[in-house]
Amino acid sequence: MKQDSIWSAIFEHPNFAILVKRRRRLVSALMLISMAVYFAIPLFSAYFPEFLSYKIYGAINVGLVYLVGQYFFGAAIAIFYACRLKNIDAMSVALVSEASVSVNHDPNQPH
């Protein structure tokens, strides 16, 4: 089958490993950063409650600002991921294109 040959050509291409490595590194880094920011709240509330209750202005304290800031942080992570994914997508399109050309021009394949 031609489709199986294209998949095989993609998986065997040296850029495929690079593509997977880049994506895995990006996703892992962003996940670890996001988890650190998210799980800092229970740690701060357990070990440093006075820090979170420090008044900034009126009834607004550090804990409230931190919690609201997590929404903006999440949006920034999503935007950063989308921008970086454009490069990975371009690399994957080039990889699929190269694999398709190599399968279509392979003299060992029956027509």
Give the H and E element order: HHHEEH
Average pLDDT, rounded to a whole number, is 87
Structural class: mainly alpha
User: Low-confidence stretches at least 5 residues in length (pLDDT < 50)?
Assistant: none
Strand content: under 5%
Number of distinct helices: 4
What is the overall shape? rod-shaped
Number of structural units classed as domains: 1
| Major sheet summary line | 2 strands, antiparallel
Short recap of the structure:
The chain has helices at residues 2-12, 14-47, 49-52, 62-104, and strands at 55-57, 60-61. The chain has 111 residues and is mostly helical. The chain has one domain.
Tell me what the structure shows:
A two-stranded antiparallel sheet has the order 1-2. The termini are close together. 2% of the residues are buried. The chain has one domain (2-104). The longest helix is centred in the C-terminal third of the chain and has 43 residues, at 62-104. By secondary structure, the chain is mostly helical. The protein has helices at residues 2-12, 14-47, 49-52, 62-104, and strands spanning 55-57, 60-61. It is built from 4 helices and 2 strands, in the order αααββα. The mean pLDDT is 87. α1 (2-12) packs across α4 and α2 (14-47) runs antiparallel to α4 (62-104).
What descriptive keywords fit this protein?
111 residues, mainly alpha, two-stranded antiparallel sheet, 2 strands, 83% helix, 5% strand, rod-shaped
Element layout with pairings:
Elements: H1 2-12, H2 14-47, H3 49-52, E1 55-57, E2 60-61, H4 62-104
Antiparallel strand pairs: 1-2
